[in-house]
Amino acid sequence: MNTSLLRSNVLDPTYGNGGVAYPDPLISTIAATVPAGDGRICVGTGNGYRYALFRVDSQGNLDKNFGEKDGLTTGSFKEGFNADGRGVQVLSDGRILITGIHHTGTQTFPALARFSAKGYLDKEYGEGGHRILDQPPIAKKQSDSSTPAAALSDAIRSSTLENVQAQVQSNPHTHLADDKIYLTYNFPWSNSVIYRLDIDGNLDKSFNASGYKYLSPPLGLDTYAGPIYLEDDRILLCGSSSSPDGKTRPCVIRLNSSGEDDQTFGDGGYAFAEIESSQFSAIDKRMDGTIVCAGYTLPTPQKGLIAAFDDKGQPLHKFENSTTDFGAYGGVWTRIGALKDGTIISAGNTMGGNEADVVLGRFKSHGAPDLSFGSRGWESIALGNSIDMAFSSALQSDGKTLITGSDFEENGNLVRKGFLLRCLTKP
């Protein structure tokens, strides 16, 4: 453990072991969590490349009374294939829904599974408890584009391949509202697609008359869409779009609840930041209605990016778009959250050959780094001489931030360990 972090009050010494918890050695990645009583329900990937569902208490200890075997429920979306667990939601009746990735060997598809409140597979759901979503038909307008889909920006393509463990590409992002399931996915060489499903995982055809929508920006060749933020009657997403002139721009997308582009927002529903060669990977909305986004610049070495918009999709007046220089190997912000006072908390990781660290930043409401946090407005958290990747972060009501991810340790053999760490982020 990096003891200097404890002295700088970044890690919460009251959580786990010095701020970090490893619930079980059979868990290789912890991708997402949701509150559950005084603990959290978690999803990730277990040894053997199977999804893993489990519960931890308030200190990050595995709840052995949850799940099918010693606190763990593991499985595949289809027997004989690899699976990653990436998202988790609790339905209104207490049942648990997870989303993840089904690997065929040559392709990946978004998939879902449903469980009882105690963590047992609901075999009445889908096919034996699982549903795998096919890529929906692509509209003729997109498939007939004069520029082929294979013209995907080289910058996005290389960034995608390098940072897949940072959850920036081809990962299902889900959100739940009134037992409607929203899920985005980026299939190869296409615009991202957003699905709306009912509680049983069927396409909700009241959404865009089909249950899904390809996100097609004005003059854009392709989009990458990440996490979803649901308003009362609208849907916010963030990501990036590449255009015929070869430029890649970060954007925020807003849809009406029925699936149409919100014409009152940005340019036909798409708001672009005045920053080229960048991508957004996380979004949140503050209490004053402004939208904050986190992401990264695409040229190597990558830098973290923080930007903001007003409720109409215009760049926020007097907000300082911030780029964070993580050093020679670069780094990315992949998660963002806003405290009640407008303070912005971002999480991500540095990039590097055999070593990468979790990074955590705090920014003032107007976008400038809060230099009273960490050593320079942000801090790196090294869990060892390893590759540490942040997969999710959650702001708690007490102002602390819980981060989950995977710690790739090399002790002769590569060992992946899923972790939770809690940080003191309240100003």
Portion in strands: 35-45%
Overall outline: globular
The number of helices is 3
Summarize the main sheet.
Answer: 4 strands, antiparallel
Structural class: mainly beta
Mean pLDDT: 85
Radius of gyration, in angstroms, nearest whole number? 20 Å
As laid out across the biggest beta sheet, the strand order is 1-28-27-26
Number of strands: 28
- The low-confidence parts are 1-7, 141-170
Helix content: under 10%
Please report the distance between the alpha carbons of the first and last residues: 24 Å
Care to give the gist of this entry?
With 427 residues, the protein is mainly beta. It is built from 3 helices and 28 strands.
What can you tell me about this protein's structure?
The chain is mainly beta and 427 residues long. It has a domain at 1-88 and 99-134 and 406-427. 4% of the residues lie in helices and 44% in strands. The chain contains three helices and 28 strands. The protein has helices spanning 3-7, 140-143, 154-162; strands at 20-21, 27-36, 39-46, 50-56, 72-75, 83-90, 96-103, 108-115, 130-132, 173-177, 180-185, 193-197, 212-214, 222-230, 234-242, 248-256, 270-272, 278-285, 291-297, 304-309, 322-324, 331-338, 344-350, 358-363, 378-381, 387-395, 400-411, 413-424. A four-stranded antiparallel sheet has the order 1-28-27-26, with no helix packed on it. A four-stranded antiparallel sheet has the order 2-3-4-5, with no helix packed on it. Strands 6-7-8-9 form a four-stranded antiparallel sheet, with no helix packed on it. The model is unreliable at 1-7 and 141-170 (pLDDT under 50).
